[in-house]
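Sequence dictates fold. Below is an illustrative record:

_____
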Amino acid sequence: MNSQWKARDLTRPLFFSLCVVLPLSAAHAISLQDVGPTGPGQTEALSVNLNGDIVGSQLSTAANSQVWVATLPNPAVFLKPLIANTQCDTTFLRVANNRTIVGVCPGLLGGKQGVIWNASNPAANPTRLMPLLLPEVGLRSNPTAINRNGEVAGVSIGALGTKAAGWPAGSGTAFAISNIFDGCMPVDLSEVYSSGKPVVALNCPNASGAMRGHAAVAGAGGYTHTLLPVPAGASRCVAVGVNNNFQYTGTCYFPGNVTKATFWNNATATPSTFALVPGVTSTTAFALNETAKVYVSYQDTSGNPAAAYWDPVGSFVTVIPPPPTYNNVYLADIAQDTIKVAFNSYAAGFYRCAIWSPSAGTQIIDNLLAGNACRLYAMSTNGQYVAGGATDNTGVRKGVIAITP
């Protein structure tokens, strides 16, 4: 899900009565904690759940990459690969609130293969996410989304093509989400069910190969797809997220290389497009929370990467201000159950970590041991934890988390 962009005046509202800029936090009260494995190498924390389970990667000086899990306050443990003496990678590595870990490892038949572990038994061998067996025996799987219940969605890959598939929590047995070899790719799935299965936001290619956003809802005969309605003037839309109220967000494409963040109150509703920022032409949907609030990325009128929090129902926008001396915001992750976001700002060759909420505004996270860089990748669904990588005072990158107020 994821420009060099001049400082703006943060002392007054930027976007008239529809938009406010909240104050910056003056205190540096948030500290980073090194949670990665000991020993040589560069580490990063890539995902964290509300239990304090963290997963990440370590790249040793011998260019040997391994994935690991740590559960506070216990030390990190390396996760076993699917095949001994091979290296799992971080193309998709997440930990769900039910402690399921999903990742990608080399498979027996070559290529990458989706797998799951469980943080409660990190020494156990992984479970292979099996591809679909009909209408042909699949060769491998590739996970692309996981919900907080540990249910996984992704693609089943066979000799004749790919199709969207899902895997129940803790299981390696696939069920079909899309039609035969239609090339659909899931991007998000709900925790509330329809006919016992999650609702899925996914993108499927049209006749010319361009991806278009769909909603997939399970029924007695399997999943049915609904093409998300396209706003007037747009050529197509791609889906980004779905919440437990079966509301959707995505990005729609308009003539002149213009994109607009878009919200659907349901899979057949007339879409609402983000158009509340004077002077800003293109916007991109980043994520949707459980209260139908959309986080939006865009380039501001000075050319800087910027972000906002959008209430499409109330037509209200709040700018997310960068830390002092910075002029850009790169969104990293959001809390699902509350209004809080993790982001990074960039200047002079280094990233700086921060969080934002309506009540506290932007709060800077202190660097690690007088290091000079920090980059966040994840936030727990309740907003309590953030995870990422930070350099220490010797220049070594460490996997870190912070507990946020």
